[in-house]
Design brief:
Blueprint lengths: L14 H6 L6 H4 L7 E3 L2 H14 L9 E3 L6 H7 L4 E3 L6 E7 L8 H11 L2 E6 L6 E2 L2 E2 L6 E5 L10 E5 L2 H12 L3 H17 L5 H12 L10 H12 L2 H15 L20 E5 L2 H13 L6 E5 L9 E8 L6 H14 L1
Parallel strand pairs: 2-3, 2-4, 4-5, 5-8
Antiparallel strand pairs: 1-9, 6-7, 8-9, 10-12, 11-12
Helix pairs in contact: 3-4, 3-6, 7-8, 10-12, 11-12
Length: about 350
Amino acid sequence: MTSGKIEEVEYLGLKSLLYLTGGYLPGYVLEWVGKYPLFTGSGRAALRLILEFFRDNKRLPDKNGQVLVPHWLCYSALNTMQKYCSPTLTMNEKVKGLLVYHQYGFPQKMDEICDYCKEKDLFIIEDCANVFETYHNKKHLGTLGDAAIFSLSKLFPSLLGGALVTKNEELRNYAETKIINCDRTLSLLTYSSRFLYECFKDTPLLGSVHLMQEMMYGMIDSALDIRAISLRVINDQLIKGAMLQRKKNYRFLLDYFEGKPEYYNILWHPGVVTPYIAPFFGTDDKLKRIVSGMRQNGIVTGIYHFDVNRNLLNPKFEKCIWIPVHQGLNEKDMEKMCEIIKRCN
């Protein structure tokens, strides 16, 4: 693990991180993806910085410039996008770029998408909100488009935190300057409100903290800098093997249902894919029974839609349920969930 004071560390092209953490360098996080990422207050903050840059350099001419987005994109991401462009579900001549969502951590068919965008001169923003360690053709997701956003708090108990990854030096310098010069009061406010929400969401104060959370989400993309404590939490999780445990849990699920094609519609690539959750497919009746059985045993899940084509340009959605595989689960937990699925199927 790399750590030290600012004066002991060579320049890493990450002045913002050094400044924000007082010289503490969480090595595992820094070494996570190719060129060092720029850490942000949230995934939405990273998205805002990218879209601001594209507006400034006229890749997006104005708010009428369209960006193709996936179905069922988080409404908070759409709120941020609408400040700078017009999200659309339909490819047309006004589209200037694509927001490519690697749903649940499973890679989109990036070869096809990149070839299309190169031909049409469209930019690509990879939405890696569900990704930390997943690869496509041996390349880390987040390094295939013009830029990528990560939402680290979805994978680690860091409350908030995101990252921006890009090979575009102009964009990188633009975003880094914005982060260094941002108003850090906003970061403190958003972090504090999220902390209070997590503390009191299961109490009689739920109504009040929920309103505070809604208010915070309205400005979260303006809180550009990450809190040092979030980076330390993420780094500590990595040191303790969070990604390895996710892989083990995912592998357990694959092995348990081996040889049953109806379960294997999308469950594949152990070691290449480290999923946020694992989608599990079936008929409506089967899925409803499984969800009911899971909830009766205190497991939070529901019925969602997954793009089995894994192609924003030609999606095909099928219903699935979420099977959690996070690092807080062990083999006994995974076995319990698999038995519930088998019993309710």
